Automatic annotation (TrEMBL):
Pfam families: Cytidylate_kin. InterPro entries: Cytidylate_kin, Cytidylate_kinase_dom, P-loop_NTPase. Belongs to the cytidylate kinase family. Type 1 subfamily. PANTHER family: CYTIDYLATE KINASE, CYTIDYLATE KINASE/PANTOATE-BETA-ALANINE LIGASE. CDD domains: CMPK (cd02020). This is Cytidylate kinase. It comes from the Bacteria. Its EC number is 2.7.4.25. Keywords: ATP-binding, Cytoplasm, Kinase, Nucleotide-binding, Transferase. It catalyses: CMP + ATP = CDP + ADP; dCMP + ATP = dCDP + ADP. GO terms for cellular component: cytosol. It comes from Ruminiclostridium cellobioparum subsp. termitidis CT1112.
Amino acid sequence: MPRSIAIDGPAGAGKSTIAKKVSQKLGFIYLDTGAMYRTVALKAIKTGIDTKNHQELANMMDKLDISISHENNLQKIFLDGEDVSEAIRAPQVSVGASNVAVFPEVRLKMVDLQRKIASGIDVVMDGRDIGSYVLPAAELKIFLTASVDERARRRYEELVQKGQPANLEAVRDDIIFRDKNDSSRALAPLVKAADAIEIDSTILTIDEVVEKILYFYKNYANITRE
């Protein structure tokens, strides 16, 4: 039976980086669910649809073509056959992703795809609602967080390293907005699952967080081992 680890938490907590490293250590596939919502937002932006327009987004979902591939544990995401793995990281797409994620039609389609992928392979999946909604039976659930200022600093440095225009105060405001948006949506909001283990990464290195998760997986995961 496929094994799964769910890593949830707010924007900028380091979920993707941590999940990638954990998946590599365990030989699992890493699935970046946030990239899927970013792709929906990118589609809306490309077609001139307001990412807050419920009806137009609902209509768009019927014509949405998203596919995912993995090469050497690197996820690539395609929109209408085009590799948009880099394009979806633009700041305006980040805000749009948080907007579109509140609508049931978007979430239900993405969750269905996520569950289908997880049903056939060992996965480490990160997002906002993996342990609480997408994979409620995941063998290990982690809720990864960090202070707002630290999350803003990390995201700002990430954008700078990629050569993208960035303003620390604007990045901080964006994170605060996304926290509120993600936590207050009606369907599957950002919430710590009752059986999740919380890790505050504010003063921890990436490797320290990874080691903690591997320790918890080895010792506390709800899994029968030979």
